[in-house]
From TrEMBL:
GO terms for cellular component: membrane. This is Alpha-1,6-mannosyltransferase. Keywords: Glycosyltransferase, Membrane, Transferase, Transmembrane, Transmembrane helix. Its main location: membrane. The keyword DNA-binding does not apply. Coiled coil: none annotated. It is a multi-pass membrane protein. One of its GO terms (molecular function) is glycosyltransferase activity.
Length: 527
């Protein structure tokens, strides 16, 4: 770490926190076990509530075959596990709060995270069926066809084992992912072929590689920007949204965000905080390596490319902070990222077709997306006033307007970071949040694009409370299944009611151990 970064760490008190005392270590053991039990319940419940393949071996398996027949009970088991994991994470946050005189150690937090993740590695996919689209699109690439031109149904056939698991809405759409991700998926498809479950498992291993990158980069970036590393890891890597939607849901955001964060840390590794001094060859090499990793992240999912802009701002301030320094930084990163991206597109043999499919997700009209919701409301108002049904036009207009607003917000944040009014990494998190929230599609796991960078640089108690509450609420409101209810709307309320009762029963049974965790932490904040 640079001398400036070390001085920042000393000023903010990083490394000065004492270890947990005996009572707090006992409480930490309870929190670990509480969360591990929740993860185990999610593993068991996924056998009946998870997004199992269409041709699943479970129904004919002794004992395990009972779970698919009890969808409500299985979902209740999963939701109980969700409540246990989220509550354990909230309690763990007491021991990772910035400014607290005693903090959980890095090894204690790593061990806790490992205990919670291990059962989730083996669960059936939940919360989404996207991994089945990954498998089908990767198989198209493995067959030598163009996944940016053909959807699974056209390329593989409607009766293909991989096509049958893809949601109907995505069966005729080409892949919206970058060439690096599909090249990795192509290797997986060459290994697993038409075998669905091994393919899902290997894609989860790919996500875990990304999670490993996140765990490596978060504490290093946090120390660089004056945040206790364990605080960043708690809000970032241990976040229930990471556990549920990256590990369990098998979303490639894990790999893209991991590459982006690693790229930022590598680029800043040898960058001193004193502006205007000559840039050394070693520093340039680290910057080029970092920009390469960020570009690889964008070759998985394009939002990672925004990190190049904020990295350019940090380089420009390092060079002296003039407008021409900004131009130099832009040229440097433009050349590096351009060469890397062109090399990736050509080297994988997948070409540049992914550029034309970036808007594929926009074919879905979901109320979760603010511009789409505004379009629906505008169309409904037109119908109420007798002006006709212009819903599609209103959605297109709202999406155009909000995307323009998101570009303006990102540009404003870049300028403020360039002028030193905000930390560049904070601008990156806020910019990614604006781009994704105001985009045509919004999914719960998109929150992580903003939350993970912000976890490394924001100490404000108000932000961390907001991020904690948002993560907890989003983690529990999405039904833990990727399957349809086939008109049986009563399944969800019944499962929720049963899981709430089960959770409260767990709290009652373990009340002597749990009540001290629920009470307000008697240790005051230092700040």
């Amino acid at each position: 770490m640079t001398a400036g970064g070390l001085a920042m760490a000393d000023r903010d008190g990083i490394g000065e926190a004492a270890p947990l005392d005996t009572r707090e270590r006992r409480q930490l053991d309870i929190i670990r076990r509480w969360g591990t039990v929740g993860a185990l319940l999610m593993f068991v419940g996924s056998l009946g509530a998870g997004a199992a393949p269409v041709f699943s071996p479970l129904p004919g398996t002794p004992v395990l075959g009972l779970f698919p027949r009890m969808s409500t009970a299985s979902m209740a088991v999963v939701w109980t596990g969700v409540f246990l994991v989220v509550s354990a994470w909230l309690w763990l946050g007491r021991f990772a709060r910035p400014g607290r005189p005693r903090l959980v150690s890095r090894s204690q937090l790593d061990r806790t995270l490992l205990m919670w993740i291990t059962p989730l590695v083996f669960v059936l996919p939940m919360f989404s069926r996207d991994v089945y689209s990954y498998l089908a699109q990767s198989q198209i690439a493995a067959n030598g066809q163009d996944p940016y031109e053909l959807g699974p149904q056209s390329a593989l056939g409607v009766d293909h084992p991989l096509t049958t698991n893809v949601p109907n809405i995505w069966r005729e759409t080409p892949a919206p992912y970058g060439p690096l991700f599909l090249a990795m998926g192509r290797v997986i498809s060459m290994v697993t072929g038409d075998s669905v479950l091994p393919g899902v498992f290997l894609h989860r291993m790919l996500v875990l590689v990304g999670l490993g990158m996140i765990v490596w980069a978060l504490p290093r970036l946090a120390r660089r920007f004056g945040v206790p590393p364990v605080s960043a890891l708690w809000l970032g890597a241990a976040n229930p949204l990471v556990l549920f939607h990256l590990v369990v849901g098998v979303h490639n955001e894990g790999l893209a965000i991991g590459l982006m964060l690693v790229g930022l840390e590598l680029a800043l590794r040898k960058m001193p905080v004193v502006p205007g001094s000559p840039m050394t060859r070693e520093e340039l090499l680290w910057i080029a390596l970092g920009a390469t990793m960020i570009t690889f992240g964008a070759a998985v999912k394009i939002p990672a490319a925004l990190a190049l802009g904020f990295l350019g701002v940090m380089i420009a301030r390092r060079l002296g902070g003039s407008f021409w320094d900004l131009v130099k930084a832009a040229l440097l990163l433009g050349v590096v990222s351009g060469v890397v991206m062109v090399g990736t597109c050509l080297g994988t043999g997948l070409g540049f077709g992914w550029i034309s499919t970036l808007n594929v997700a926009g074919t879905v009209k979901s109320w979760m997306s603010p511009p789409t919701a505004m379009g629906f409301m505008g169309g409904g108002l037109g119908l109420a006033l007798g002006l006709g049904n212009h819903t599609d036009s209103m959605i297109a207009l709202m999406r155009l307007v909000t995307q323009a607003v998101s570009v303006w917000i990102a540009g404003l944040l870049l300028w403020k970071a360039f002028k030193g009014r905000i930390k560049a990494v904070n601008g990156l998190g806020a910019g990614l949040g604006a781009v994704l929230v105001l985009g045509p599609v919004l999914q719960p796991w998109y929150v992580l694009w903003a939350a993970l960078p912000l976890a490394t640089a924001v100490l404000a108690k108000r932000f961390r409370l907001f991020a904690m509450a948002t993560s907890a609420v989003v983690a529990v409101v999405l039904p833990p299944t990727g399957a349809a209810f086939d008109g049986r709307a009563y399944i969800v309320p019944q499962a929720v009611a049963a899981s709430v009762i089960a959770f409260l029963l767990c709290v009652f049974v373990a009340r002597k151990q749990v009540m001290p965790l629920i009470r307000r932490d008697p240790v005051p904040d230092a700040a």
